[in-house]
Design a protein that fits this description.
Rossmann fold; 4-stranded mixed beta sheet; 12 helices; binds NADP nicotinamide-adenine-dinucleotide phosphate; Dihydrodipicolinate Reductase, domain 2; 7-stranded parallel beta sheet
């Protein structure tokens, strides 16, 4: 297959990860970057032309891009830029606002179909490969439920969304939040109890917070503990540390997770399916998954398919450079 020309739209952690990942995929080529702040991007990166988002159409035409990997945030960026970009080019994104996936799919499907493009949505590790594993577990163990646990290692997993939420609290200068799976909850699932968990039953939250000078520790702690959805339902610990400690001891984006389902097979024999991911860098791992989906998007587009797709709709062989013969001989 000839090289797939890829545009990166949005230059943050995931955008940087995609650029790094493309270098490890010789069948893919980065041809341009599109950003709301091209001057910021150019200070860090100048290997390919960088365009302002208002010039996206020109960027794709001039660079010959076939697929744009959308690396903006799920909360505000993708709902706006997703459909805009789907008018112009085949897209791949990691929209991760789970309850809004059906609406986002519908919006992207409509636009992509109207403009003859493919839009692969909501892929990464969760949603993404964990969605696939949940679906497979549900199909192979009928009657079981598939659960997702995060932060199983001793250090837990860095939650970027919860870290962002901490940084919005007045008096917080910087912060990072680590999620920890509760071992007894994992055990219940592995025992085949198929429990009904409330949000706080599966994970605890550990916060490392740097205060602004003169900020009130008690008020900040209260604001964290009472934040609905993010911290209020959880057993949450707040640690105040210096910026230097945060930068040295809590750098990087480690994360990990487990999909687990347990049930029975035909005559009631116990059965368990588990799928585990351990990432040194969550955004780089997400980027690797996005790049494999860009390959799949190019293949779907070459078959004249249009509309929105998820990882559940794409054959696994479309993600890999390996030929069908190679897959049959060595990967089956
Ligand atoms: N499905 C999954 O498994 C999964 C996993 C991880 C993340 N995600 C999703 O990926 C999304 C992006 O994550 P991220 O960590 O890359 O977010 P991020 O670093 O905050 O970047 C998001 C956007 O913000 C802008 N930006 C970044 N740094 C900036 C800066 N210093 N100044 C001004 N603008 C800046 C960039 O857009 P411009 O270049 O246009 O300015 C960038 O595309 C998340 O919202 C999450 O939903 C999904």
């Amino acid at each position: 297959m000839s090289q797939v020309k890829v545009a990166v739209v949005g230059y943050g952690n995931v955008g940087r990860g995609v650029i790094a990942s493309l270098k490890n995929n010789p069948d893919m080529e980065l041809v341009c970057v599109v950003s709301r702040s091209p001057e910021r991007v150019k200070k860090e990166f100048s290997a390919v032309p960088v365009f302002h988002v208002s010039e996206a159409e020109k960027a794709f035409e001039r660079s010959g891009a076939q697929v744009a990997i959308l690396c903006g945030g799920s909360k505000d960026d993708l709902p706006k830029f997703g459909p805009q970009m789907a008018k112009l080019i085949n897209t791949v994104d990691s929209f991760d606002n789970h309850i809004h996936i059906p609406d986002y799919f519908a919006a992207m499907d409509k636009t992509a179909k109207e403009h003859g493009h493919v839009s692969v949505i909501s892929t990464g590790w969760d949603p993404g490969i964990f969605s696939l594993e949940r679906t497979l577990a549900g199909a192979f163990l009928p009657g079981s439920r598939a659960y997702g646990f995060y932060g199983l290692g001793p250090a837990g997993g860095l939650s970027m969304g919860h870290s962002d939420a901490l940084r919005t609290i007045p008096g917080v200068k910087d912060a990072r939040q680590y999620t920890h799976a509760i071992p007894s909850a994992v055990k219940k699932v592995q025992n085949g109890e198929n429990p009904d968990f409330a949000p706080g039953d599966m994970h605890t939250r550990e916060c490392f917070v740097v205060l602004e000078e003169g900020a009130d520790k008690v008020a900040v702690t209260k604001a964290i503990m009472e934040m609905p959805g993010y911290f209020a339902p959880y057993d949450t610990t707040v640690n105040f540390i210096t910026q230097e400690e945060l930068n040295t001891k809590y750098a990087g984006f480690p994360h990990d997770g487990l999909v687990a389902a347990a049930g029975v097979t035909g005559k009631g024999n116990p059965a368990r399916i588990e799928y585990r991911c351990v990432w040194g860098s969550n955004p780089e791992a997400t980027a690797n998954v996005l790049v494999a989906h860009a390959r799949a998007a190019a293949r779907l587009a070459a078959e004249k398919r249009t509309g929105a797709f998820t990882i559940l709709d794409i054959p696994a062989s479309y993600f890999t450079t390996k030929s069908h013969d190679e897959l049959l001989a060595h990967w089956m």
